User: Which sequence fits this backbone?
């Protein structure tokens, strides 16, 4: 453990690989009176993640970034096996963003033999992603609860890019009285509006040229909903735009209440959320109304 | 809040009724360097609970006793409505056992509108109680996780009386990496062997006279299993003894591995667990092999 801590050069965040070392590190921070913010990630870090880390450092003295590609939030047919992994590259990027520690649990630690407990979310977890990835939020809530209990942060930072996930995690924290604050961070985008995503790496050049239509279409839907057009009509128009641009299929375009993800009422904070397939890559995005 | 804290006389534990006051109290203990043990109860306290509180005080500087009759661990046909409640009596008893704080959440605090998260346990939760009370452990794990997140104790004390519950909670804490230690406490018994239980108050004098047969029968089964008799035979003999004594029905008598609640192997730590109805009262008990 001491060896793994001491081989870190310069400003690079310290890698931590055992729960014992993690708890020792956190205890050390606490005894120095430091606060802690956690940024949970699946690695394959991009500027969107680094923005979360920089936000973490404005909230707390120490930023812990976890990197774990969680098998329980992928279905068997999904891209768990080919999900991009680059630990060395990730750590180099994290050094530039000011992360203090990188928490790198492995699956033997996360899901030991006889693992038999899971957290089930309803409410904000119903519909949208769950209609297409029914296993997803069960995997997310369980692994996020574990990360919270491992790191015991004061704050945890999640991107608005995964807006329903953020809502489900806020709901879990409130429902289970978890002793931390959830901070939502705005989505980082390419100049043409495409939301940064580790899965953008899957896109061909032709697909990459089409991809920004997703964001453009939901921004139009947000404007229509704000101006009083009925949500179903505004959503359908956006879906048609996405399909016409060359996306293979649209999982959903939905206009919802921003807090509950229930029905949208004009004048209340709303959100347009969408998921669509560009070739074999599934992209999601959302914008506020 | 200050008012509710200041009206406590002498040695009686301070009642706490809001999450804000609880967190403030816990922060105060922490800033004094004190450790905390939680004893979760449903009130109707008896000497068994008080033994848990005294054990808590040997483990930590401060003992917090929670009292909450959790509706989610009762089915509609069960005894939630008539479950005994006596807050004033409970607080007086707790004063004698050295409890420092009594946490008294209400259902509006525990299960606010739009509550939508639950913890599901398999593994140790399968079979036994779950075969007869399928809702039970989902209610227990969720409320216990909330209590842990509210109180953030270093230790939580649970009686071995509810042996499967203790196993399920240990499993949850391990699976979700909850940052506390679970302490199991031996069952407190009447002189004739009957395990103390708030539900013993339901028994008629005639039923009370029959009740100790439950413990006697499972002690006999433990002796038989230890001497090498096959578990099914030893369990069946115990069930027959319980039935012959005048119990209305036997839900189960089972001989299991003490750690996993899986199949028992001679020579390993084992447990005999039983549940049976005496009139309209359901009694449970267990003993080690």
Assistant:
């Amino acid at each position: 453990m001491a060896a793994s801590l001491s081989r870190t050069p310069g400003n690079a965040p310290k890698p931590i690989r055992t729960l014992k070392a993690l708890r020792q590190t956190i205890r050390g921070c606490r005894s120095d009176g430091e606060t802690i913010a956690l940024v949970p990630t699946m690695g394959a870090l991009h500027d969107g993640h680094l923005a979360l880390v920089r936000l973490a450092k404005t909230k707390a003295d120490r930023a812990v970034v976890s990197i774990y590609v969680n098998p329980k939030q992928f279905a068997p047919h999904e891209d768990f096996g080919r999900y991009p992994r680059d630990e060395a590259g990730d750590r180099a990027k994290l050094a530039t963003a000011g992360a203090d520690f990188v928490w790198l649990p492995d699956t033997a630690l996360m899901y030991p033999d006889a693992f038999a407990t899971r957290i089930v979310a309803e409410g904000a977890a119903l519909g949208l992603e769950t209609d297409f990835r029914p296993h997803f939020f069960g995997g997310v809530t369980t692994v996020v609860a574990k990360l919270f209990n491992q790191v015991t942060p004061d704050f945890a930072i999640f991107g608005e890019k995964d807006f329903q996930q953020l809502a489900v995690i806020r709901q879990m924290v409130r429902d289970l009285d978890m002793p931390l604050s959830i901070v939502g961070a705005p989505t980082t985008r390419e100049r043409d509006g495409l939301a940064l995503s580790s899965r953008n790496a899957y896109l061909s050049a032709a697909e990459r040229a089409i991809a920004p239509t997703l964001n453009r279409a939901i921004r139009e839907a947000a404007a229509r909903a704000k101006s009083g057009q009925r949500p179903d009509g505004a959503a359908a128009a956006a879906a048609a735009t996405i399909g016409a641009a060359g996306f293979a299929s649209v999982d959903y375009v939905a206009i919802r209440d921003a807090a509950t993800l229930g029905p949208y009422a004009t004048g209340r904070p709303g959100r347009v959320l969408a998921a669509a397939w560009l070739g074999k890559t599934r992209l999601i995005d959302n914008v506020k109304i």
In short: The beta strands of chain A are 14-16, 36-41, 62-67, 101-103, 117-121, 155-159, 181-185, 249-257, 270-278, 281-288. Chain A touches chain B through 31 residues (CB under 8 Å).
